Every structure is written in structure tokens, then in C-alpha cells.
Please model this.
Amino acid sequence: MAEENYLKEYRKKRDFHRTPEPSGEGRSPEEEPIFVIQKHDARTLHYDLRLEVGGVLKSWAVPKGPSANPKDKRLAVPTEDHPLEYADFEGVIPEGQYGAGTVLVWDIGTYRNLKEKEASMEQCIEEGHVAVWLEGKKLKGGYALIRTGKNGRWLLVKMADQQADVLRQPVDTEPRSVLSGRTIEEIAEGEK
Ligand code: MN
Model:
């Protein structure tokens, strides 16, 4: 099964007897692909942007998180594919485990490939130029993910559309989980 291979790196890094994260079995892909952004208070705080592509969640770590201002270019570093079930994972990854720290579902929803007529999401990622329309609870509208060529780094940029807002910094003003309403501190505290 192809998905087994996609998740090999993800599984290799984790001991599922010790971390509450999912191992990635089950859950069939739904009609509309999903996206999720997880705030991850690990060694360094970052936001993991994940897009459902080909049965897994393609992932990028965004240190500053997404912006609604098209002038902001946010560094996005590719990370290993995650299982689809990871999308609603919220909780604490124990010390000693990969990615140890607290995870909060900062935004979740569906997305559309804005270049679907020309290229599949797989092709867009391969070519280093992704353009998606997000229908999240916090983020809406077009976002581009562009590989810069420098050390395989990417940039996440809000596209200039009606959903753009130069004054809105949702990462600062809307810190709570869209699933539980909790802050990252409350999640960390609640699982002690
Ligand atoms: Mn992370």
C-alpha cells in the first residue's frame, strides 16, 4: 500500500505506545481535501500547515504562522508527511518523544487547488508552486506556497484577494483552538 511508504518517516520517529499521536491507520479520504494549521509549542514555537494530498497530510513548519497581509512572506520549512487523522490531534507529546511539546488545532477546514485545471497538487508541490483557496474558520482566501530554491525553503504568502487584510494578524489576535476553544497554555496545563 502506497500510504504505508508515505508515512514511514513519520512512524519511524515515533513510539505510539508513548505518544498520544495517531499512527495513521484507518480514515478514508473525503471528497473535499482538508487543511489544518496546528500551533506547536515544541523546542521552538511554530505553526504546522498541513494539506491533504494523495491520502496524507503534506506538511510545512511555519515559524511565524500565517498572515492575512499579502506583503508578509512567511518562511515555511517542509516536514514529513503526516497521517490524515493527525488533523484533529490536539494534546501533549511527552518529553523524549519526537516533537515533544503542546499541539493546538489553530485552524481547520477544506481547500481547493487554484491551479487544478493545469496541475494536480502533487505536481504543484513537485514544481514548488502551490496556490490554494482555504475555507477555514480563521483563514479564508488564496494562499501561495512557493519554493525559493535556497536550501529547499518555501514561503507562505497571502494572495491579494478580497480576503486579504493588511491589518489582520490572526496568529496574535486569535490564539485559541478552533476545536476546543483552549489556549496552548490550557492544553499544556490540562494534561499534566
Ligand atoms: Mn511541528
Observations:
- The mean pLDDT is 92.
